[in-house]
Amino acid sequence: MRAILDSREAGWRTALAARLQRGGWPDGLDAATGVELVIAVAKGVSLTPQRAVEVFGLLHQLLTWQGTRQ
What we know:
Layout: H1 2-21, H2 31-45, H3 52-64
Helix pairs in contact: 1-2, 2-3
C-alpha cells in the first residue's frame, strides 16, 4: 500500500513541476518550491476543509503574483 501511495505522490509532484515550469509560478522562484507549497496546501486544507476557499484563494494569488521580490 505504501509503495502505491508513494508512486502516486511522485506522479503528482512530476505533473505539478511540469505545469509550474511552463509558467504559473512567479519569476525567480524555484518551481520545486512551488510543488511543495501546492502539496502542503492541499494536504493541510484537508484538516480544515471549511477554510478551503480562502486557502486556495491565497494560493492562487501567490501563484499568479507578478510583483517584485524584495
